[in-house]
Specification:
The chain has 154 residues and is an alpha+beta fold. It has five helices and five strands, in the order H-E-E-E-H-H-E-E-H-H. The protein is 33% helix and 25% strand.
Length: 154
């Protein structure tokens, strides 16, 4: 996966019990996204938990594998990067950057209106991220406010 934190490279076995799962921060077609802390090193991540049965029922094994393959190749400051993945009998887990600010849809709801300067900043960041992934042969097919995350500092 992206650039693994050095402390992860030396870990033998990572399981769900390696983390303290705090609360659900999002939901998707295959499961949930959790705010979780890696217990041993007290680092916070977002963990995408995907139910294997749901993936199989929807015949989406290839798209999940593609997502993991893409996330192995990319690493960018404006993209929620993935660090590693693991699984148990029921679920696949993808450990990613935790972005505190929430999604753009929620920010739009709270702010009601953005200034022209704020909009230019948001659009510039989106364009830089899209340019990066396109340069790496990836096309994002689901660009919408719910899929755009904002750091807590904007």
């Amino acid at each position: 996966m992206g650039t693994q934190p050095s402390f992860i490279k030396n870990e033998k076995l990572i399981t769900p019990s390696s983390f303290k799962f705090h609360f659900v921060i999002g939901r998707g077609g295959f499961g949930k996204v959790w705010k979780a802390t890696y217990i041993k090193y007290k680092r916070t991540y977002a963990i995408k938990q995907m139910n294997k049965n749901k993936i199989h029922q929807k015949k989406c094994e290839a798209s999940v594998k593609d997502e993991l393959d893409i996330l192995k190749r990319i690493n960018h400051p404006f993209i929620a990067n993935a660090y590693f993945a693991f699984q148990d009998i029921d679920n696949l887990y993808l450990v990613m950057d935790y972005i505190k600010g929430g999604d753009l849809r929620y920010a739009m709801y709270l702010n009601k209106k953005f200034s022209e300067e704020q909009i230019k900043f948001i659009v510039a960041n989106i364009m830089l991220a899209l340019d990066y992934i396109h340069t790496n042969g990836v096309v994002h097919r689901d660009l919408k406010p719910e899929n755009l995350l904002i750091e807590d500092n904007g």
